[in-house]
Amino acid sequence: MTEMNIHQVLEYLPHRYPFLLIDRVLSYDPGKSICALKNVTINEPFFNGHFPHYAVMPGVLIIEALAQAAALLAFVSKGEKPDPDTLYYFVGIDNARFKKPVSPGDTLHLHVEFQRELRGIWRFGAKATVEDDVVAEAQLMCAKRAVKK
Question: Which residues form the domain of 59?
Fold first, then answer.
């Protein structure tokens, strides 16, 4: 198991501010699992319009953060980095559940486990926690595809 700082994360993910939702990888085991984190701050641009009277991180962005962690796991599992001709696309969500709100000041821990790869589609079990409480969970699918230019 090893970790990644933000500079290493940027080598693997094509996302940039304001859509990069991973601040650090705490540990990963290629082909098995990854644990990453997102520090949620009041400066996030989505808080201006998503319940401005009571700031709550949108559930779709929690799922996106989990999908970014899954993409990182896929890259390190394959031993490759992204290239300009391909992307890992988010292709499916099953059994998504949101259990508690995520607010500014929370540290979102993103836990993703590889389940299987079949015909180029990767399946992951994903769970987001704040202080050991599960805030969201889902099964995610992604696939590597050529970029159409």
Answer: 2-146
How many residues are there in the chain?
A: 149
Please pick, among 50, 53, 109, 111, the residue that the annotation labels catalytic.
50
Structure tokens given for 53: 């009277």
d(CA 29, CA 1): 5
Nearest of 81, 2, 77, 83 to residue 36 by alpha carbon: 2
**What is the domain count for the chain?**
1
Told to judge if 50 belongs to the known catalytic residues of this protein, a careful annotator would answer yes
Amino acid identity at 43: N
In this predicted model, what pLDDT tens digit does every residue of 99-142 receive, in sequence order? 999 999 999 999 999 999 999 899 999 999 999 999 999 999 99
Residue 39 — φ and ψ, nearest 5°? -85, 120
- What pLDDT shows up at residue 146? 85
pTM: 0.95
User: Is pLDDT of 83 > 90?
Assistant: no
CATH of the domain at 62: 3.10.129.10
51-66 average pLDDT score: 93
In which element (H, E) is residue 40 found? none
| Cβ within 8 Å of residue 127, ≥6 positions away | 66, 111, 112, 134, 136, 137
